[in-house]
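Field reference: sequence -> structure
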Amino acid sequence: MMKSYLHTAICAAIDGGKAIMEVYATDFDVVIKEDESPLTIADKNANAIINTYLEKTDIPIISEENKQAEYSERKDWERCWIVDPLDGTKEFIKRNGEFTVNIALIKDGVPFLGVIYVPVTKTLYFTSDDGEASYKFVVENDIIVNAEDIVKKAIKIAPALKTEPVKVVGSRSHFNEDTKAFISEIEKEKEVNIVSKGSSLKFCVVAEGGAHVYPRFAPTMEWDTAAGHAICKAVGVAVIDQETQKPLRYNKEDLLNPHFLVSY
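Structure field:
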């Protein structure tokens, strides 16, 4: 069954990405939501397509663009999908290509399966169906999506060895004083290189060895992190809540994440 869920998530992410690229090629409008985050028709279109796929699994969905169920209902869910149909809307608006589609399957508050798709480069990151490994694949033809074929041909990824300089991946949009202070502490003992990335690509960079650590000391929501967390966890990279010093949890009463650190 997990294999079927993974294949469904892969197809949903790629088709959602196609819908995003159709808007990306146009002179689209931007709406500012109540929380002051931007929204485009690409977010809505991708969300509708992804929901169509995931609803067939009969597993409830938490998506940034869906109306959220009350916690009194959600707290009894053993499994749920957590979706960001367009992560990095700011990067989308800037047209720098660093935005993603995020889909994760959560079991008892823990990310198990994760899929991240980068529509501009057609790069797909995903976990194995047992959550024990992560892979990367460049989709040559996103018109005809054969998830089983993608899984067979994908390349396994792994984090970097702990060598110097220490590569710290940071957000293009959220590089704040707490992050600078964290980097300064490392610099007291080791040389540091900064790797700038937008959206959930920061998780992928650590998971595939392009950086050693990703400090996030600014607000994020569960849909921003769930898929990346799953991909990192599958390769042995920890995503640690800085309040509890335990892995981030999902489907919480408050869907806002605490500050966290991604490291190997």
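Note: The chain has two domains: 2-156, 166-263.
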